[in-house]
Amino acid sequence: MATQKLYAGVKLRETRTRLGLTQKSFAERLGVSLPYLNQMENNHRPVSAAVVLALAGEFGLDVTELSAGDAERLVSDMREALADPIFADAAPPLADLRLTASNAPALARAFLEMHRSYRQAHERLASLDEALGREGAQTVVSPWEEVRDFFHYCDNYIDAVDRAAEHFISPNGKVLDPIARATEALRARGIEVQFAETTDLRQRAGNVLRIGAHAGRATQAFQLLHQVALISQNDLLEATLDLARFQSETARSIAKIGLANYFAGAALLPYRAFLEAAQETRHDLERLADIFGASIEQVAHRLSTLQRPGAKGIPFFFVRVDQAGTITKRHSATRLQFARFGGACPLWNVHQAFETPTKFLRQLAETPDGVRYLCLARDVSKPGGSFTAPVRRYAICLGCEVSHARGLVYADDMELNTPKAYQPIGISCRICERKDCHQRSVPPLERRLSVDPNRRGLLPYDID
Question: Residue 195 burial (CB < 10 Å; 0-12/13-18/19+)?
Fold first, then answer.
């Protein structure tokens, strides 16, 4: 497989601007000519290996940041948006999308926000036209999607919050019991903690915080740490929200809950201790859950956030789906990007996890761009605490590019070097170019179709 060239003009310009250097002085310190630097910054030439080494040696830059930017995510998101039938045959070629993502990321994000606004307006016209007809009605970006994109483009790693959580749970370098530490911190602020028979997981009334006694220990710890974040880390959360500049108070409120959840997860699974344990156990989710008193889902999600500069873990993707196939959580530190609108590829093993409760399913998968992944899926059930309470069922999937698979215990005995062992999967049918997929629901947008009324193959049409 051909090596992909590295175009990182935006990152180069950001680095030079942050250092306060002119192009001339920056070029001299990198050991290249001024015209060559100019071409790299404008993505007319790829970043050479010598420049990558110079960036690391001269400026201490984490070179993984050059390829970990937003470009691939933006390309995937734009292709997904352009699969909307309103664009018909107007979709630009992939090369143009890559140029836009690399050279004009702000324009790409503006396009995605415009498309989201259109979709929401269209949905309202279909089901809420009477409400839209009232004077003063406006079309706004969905607060939920706005918050989801905030975490998505932060690589789901918020450094200040992550470090604050780590310091809280291990102030002297030793990881403390999360329930005892959180209870102590809350009581120091006048909050009494009670474990009560309640249908809520967490409920605060005045100076009393009630935690559901029916919840598992991992859930109780998480809910206590969430409340600690809201009370003791409020200034940090508000400062982070100020920087995000959300478009509505609703989005800001949702994001604050998300940040408090982030703090709770980072305190329950503190960065350095968790990263070390993950490497020692070869990312065995069950052993990690036992070591830290966490749930399998909490461990899997935390693994996908280990993106601290200078101390990064294996880049994982993490996704959670419901029984209808709708993605309810998603994050990717890999090149795999999930469908923003709709469900995931039906050939992906995450959908089969519901059929095999409590068992891990392993899958070697290959996306249409030729990148191969090791995928690990399992069902997750969340009981309501009583016979009459509903049970929420999800499936989670954690995975990494196969080049990192040897660091996972789950890769043992798998045929990583056998091409036929990899299941062909995609992102969504409209942007998947596979011609022979037996699960295809709609044709690919960028391909022409041939229809022969006298022949029926796997599909009622042929993809040219």
Answer: middle
Q: How does the average pLDDT of the chain come out, rounded?
A: 84
CB 79 within 8 A of CB 426: no
How far apart are the C-alpha atoms of 9 and 26, rounded to whole Å? 13
DSSP 197-213: --SSSEEEETTEEEEET
| Contact present, 120 and 85 (Cβ < 8 Å) | no
Position 149 scores a pLDDT of 81
Single out the residue of 57, 54, 67, 65 nearest to residue 6, CA to CA.
67
Rounded to an integer, the average pLDDT of 392-413 is 94
186 neighbors 231 (Cβ within 8 angstroms): yes
- What distances in angstroms separate CA 1 from CA 199, 369, 371, 404, 425, one per listed residue? 54, 11, 10, 17, 18
pTM of the model: 0.72
The mean pLDDT of 287-304, rounded to a whole number, is: 95
**Residue 312 and residue 285: Cα distance in Å, rounded?**
18
The label of the residue with tokens 């175009």 reads 7
393 three-state secondary structure: strand
Nearest to 146 by CA among 122, 98, 112, 118: 112
Residue from 447, 448, 444, 449 nearest 431 by CA: 444
Q: Is the pLDDT of residue 83 over 80?
A: no
Residues in the chain: 464
Identity of residue 180: A
- The pLDDT value recorded for residue 66 is 62
Residue with tokens 């530490």: 181
How do strand 192-196 and strand 208-212 relate by DSSP bridges? Answer: parallel
- How distant is the alpha carbon of residue 444 from its chain centre? 25
Cα 453 off chain centre by: 44
